[in-house]
Amino acid sequence: MNEKTKPAKKTPAAGPKPKAAPPDGKKKALDPKQIVHADFLAAAAPGSSLPAPTMAEIAFAGRSNVGKSSLINTLVERKGLVRTGATPGVTRQINLFEARARDGATFHLIDLPGYGYAKRSKAERTAWGDLIEGYLRGRITLAALVILVDVRRGLEEDDLELIQFVEEARDVQRRPVEIVIVATKADKIGRSASRSATAAMAKSTGRKVIGFSSVTGEGRAELWALLRKVTLGTPEATSVVKDPEPEPA
Ligand SMILES: Nc1nc2c(ncn2[C@@H]2O[C@H](COP(=O)(O)OP(=O)(O)OP(=O)(O)O)[C@@H](O)[C@H]2O)c(=O)[nH]1
Ligand SMILES: [Mg+2]
């Protein structure tokens, strides 16, 4: 049936009344924690550095191709913000993004190049290793480190070494970095398999493990709520280089 042969729509007067918009005061409240703005700010490759730290940062680490960049896109609900790809080794720099929630809370999100990608030259791997380690050791505003693992593979040697590295890199100048483990690509296995895999990881590490999928969005709300909590709970959550509030005239 084409447009012309379609019967005319019935007037609503004949049927039940359409629901009226709720009066202003009764509108469904918008989620104050929802990220309403996200943007790329800066990048650093070996030999260059990020801008000086100004606010709480959440970094994302994990093996190449595990889904770090996809997770950031999912978290900020912006499909194309961060470049992703089917082959490992897509992210080749430290990329810094800014995300602002509706309530004004602002966070810096750091997408790290993946590790464990054997096809890189040894020199390149060393340079990147130094870059990432330098960031994790020295970034004074680093509040949380999200370590992504493939739910089907679990924690591997590289991941455990990273956890140990961050724990040992405690700095008197900053609060301990909160480590959050995310078991991603949960959509690739059934819900109950994913649940038991995350539970096993939680048991073996003694840490919270969140099941996640960038395809279905599973775990997004839980992860964001946790990251907000751990980030805002640290003194670094507020700007280090704060603009002084203007005095009222
Ligand atoms: N099924 C499924 N695929 C995913 C998920 N997350 C990421 N992918 C896919 O996995 C591939 C790698 O994703 P990226 O986000 O680029 O991975 P990355 O960890 O940033 O990779 P590098 O930058 O190379 O370290 C892409 O093809 C994504 O579409 C997920 O939750 N489920
Ligand atoms: Mg990436």
Shape: globular
- CATH-defined topology: Rossmann fold
Distance between the termini: 68 Å
CATH superfamily caption: P-loop containing nucleotide triphosphate hydrolases
Structural class: alpha/beta
Bound molecules: guanosine-5'-triphosphate, magnesium ion
Strand content: 15-25%
The CATH architecture assignment turns out to be 3-Layer(aba) Sandwich
Main sheet overview: 7 strands, mixed
Helical content band: 25-40%
CATH class: Alpha Beta
**What is the domain tally?**
1
What's the tally of helices?
A: 5
Gyration radius, in Å: 22 Å
Kindly report the spatial arrangement of strands forming the biggest sheet. Answer: 1-3-4-2-5-6-7
Q: Unreliable stretches, pLDDT < 50, 5 or more residues?
A: 1-14, 234-249
Order of helices and strands: EEHEEHEHEHEH
Q: Can you give the mean pLDDT?
A: 83
Describe this entry's structure for a reader.
The chain has helices at 68-76, 122-138, 157-168, 191-205, 220-232, and strands spanning 35-44, 57-62, 94-101, 106-111, 142-150, 178-184, 209-211. With 249 residues, it is of the alpha/beta class. The chain has a single domain (33-237), classed as Rossmann fold, CATH 3.40.50.300. Strands 1-3-4-2-5-6-7 form a seven-stranded mixed β-sheet, sandwiched between helices. The radius of gyration is 22 Å and the shape is globular. The chain starts with 34 loop residues before the first strand and ends in a 17-residue tail after the last helix. 33% of the residues are buried. The model is unreliable at 1-14 and 234-249 (pLDDT under 50). Bound molecules: guanosine-5'-triphosphate and magnesium ion (MG). Magnesium ion is lined by residues 68-69, 90-91, 111. Necessary for normal cell division and for the maintenance of normal septation. Keywords: Cell cycle, Cell division, GTP-binding, Magnesium, Metal-binding, Nucleotide-binding, Septation. Pfam families: MMR_HSR1. Residues 1-32 are annotated as: Disordered. It comes from Polyangium fumosum.
